[in-house]
Design a protein that fits this description.
The complex is a heterotrimer.
Chain A: H1 2-26, H2 30-55, H3 61-84
Chain B: H1 2-31, H2 35-63, H3 71-100
Helix pairs in contact in B: 1-2, 2-3
Chain C: H1 2-7, H2 11-25, H3 30-46, H4 60-86, E1 95-100, H5 106-118, E2 122-128, E3 133-138, H6 144-163
Antiparallel strand pairs in C: 1-3, 2-3
The chains are: A mainly alpha, B mainly alpha, C mainly alpha.
Chain lengths: 89, 101, 165
């Protein structure tokens, strides 16, 4: 059953990535691009988790966790930059 | 054996729901007409979708030996805490941008 | 009392750090417990200055009920958003509205803003503490007054009661 579901889930996330990339390229604003990048980061976490299930290991867990944290910090830093130019007040 | 198949069904359903919602989030991101409507889909759908996939991974690794692993729950929790903050900050940034013009 | 206050200024944060550490190492041994306890004492001490004064949870049962309601609403929100996203674009009516705040405490106001972002069709965009309102963007708002009343009754009133502010 998993052998059928996993490719479906992986391709759904793959299509999601393409759509994010399209928004990232098209813009039109900086905020749209940041939003696209943030969504991509979250989708990358999903991809890593799916890879972990497909390969049956838990070694990728830390990568997903670090991606979640760094993605959030990066998005916040970019937003702060747009808001005031100062990242740390 | 019965238990293994049950967990497999749970994992499969969670994966399908999760991947579906993640896809919906990205469709919304690509399809909606302006920034503020675009913001809705990724902050909600993608977060729940990836949360479901992460929980699926938790169930899968817990059921296939190695005991209960709750670590994935931390990612899920983290995503649900940070998603509104990211949405809020992005909205604020976009609002400043439109006000300046 | 004072020793507890000085060693554990944020008991909830300490418990959360300890729990997170045990989950992360996913090995319940004496060593991990000890390390977690050390971190649970040290991290709140070093980050003390960044924590604003938070009101205490006065009604824990109500807090759990609000939490469950929000979890349910998150699933509902996603169903709603999925329907709107996949349906025809011409049918949605996005608009901004201002939600007047009855809450003074900035921490509780932030909590309310986060809940608004996670629940059906609304994202909080800006908190104006001087004018005491939250700037909200709704994806599909038919009646502005009804949307504001729904948020106030469903989330703000319980939050007010939980924190008694």
């Amino acid at each position: 059953m998993l052998s059928i579901v996993l490719p479906i889930a992986l391709s759904a996330i793959g299509v999601a990535f393409v759509l994010n990339l399209w928004r990232l390229v098209k813009g039109p604003d900086a905020t749209d691009r940041i939003l696209a990048l943030d969504t991509m980061t979250i989708n990358a976490i999903a991809l890593i988790m799916l890879l972990g299930i497909a390969l049956g290991t838990t070694v990728y867990f830390e990568a997903a966790l670090i991606l979640a944290m760094m993605g959030f910090v990066g998005t916040v830093a970019l937003c702060k930059f747009l808001l005031g130019g100062d990242i740390i007040e | 054996m019965m238990e293994a198949t049950l967990s497999e069904v749970v994992v499969s359903v969670l994966l399908l729901v999760g991947a579906g919602f993640a896809l919906v989030g990205s469709i919304g991101l690509a399809r909606m007409p302006d920034f503020f409507t675009r913001m809705h889909a990724p902050t909600k759908a993608t977060t729940l979708g990836v949360g479901a996939i992460v929980v699926a991974s938790l169930v899968f690794h817990s059921s296939s030996g190695g005991g209960l692993s709750l670590r994935e729950l931390a990612i899920s929790l983290f995503l649900f805490i940070t998603a509104p903050l990211v949405g809020h900050l992005l909205g604020k940034a976009a609002l400043r941008g439109t006000r300046k013009d | 009392m004072t020793i507890r206050k000085r060693l554990l200024p944020q008991p909830f944060v300490s418990v959360a750090v300890l729990g997170l550490w045990l989950v992360m190492v996913s090995a319940f041994t004496l060593g991990s417990l000890l390390m977690g306890a050390i971190l649970a004492v040290l991290i709140p001490l070093f980050t003390q200055r960044f924590w604003p004064d938070r009101p205490l949870v006065r009604r824990p049962v109500l807090a759990v009920r609000l939490f469950l309601r929000v979890c349910f609403d998150i699933v509902l929100a996603n169903w709603e958003v999925a329907r709107l996203v996949l349906g025809p674009i011409g049918r949605i009516h996005p608009r901004f509205f201002d939600l007047p705040l009855d809450i003074d405490d900035p921490f509780v106001a932030t909590l309310l803003a986060s809940i608004i972002s996670l629940t059906p069709g609304t994202v909080s965009v800006d908190i104006d503490t001087e004018a005491r309102l939250i700037h909200v963007h709704g994806l599909n708002v038919g009646d502005e007054g009804a949307a504001i009343a729904a948020i106030k009754a469903r989330y703000e009133a319980p939050l007010k009661e939980i924190f008694q502010c």
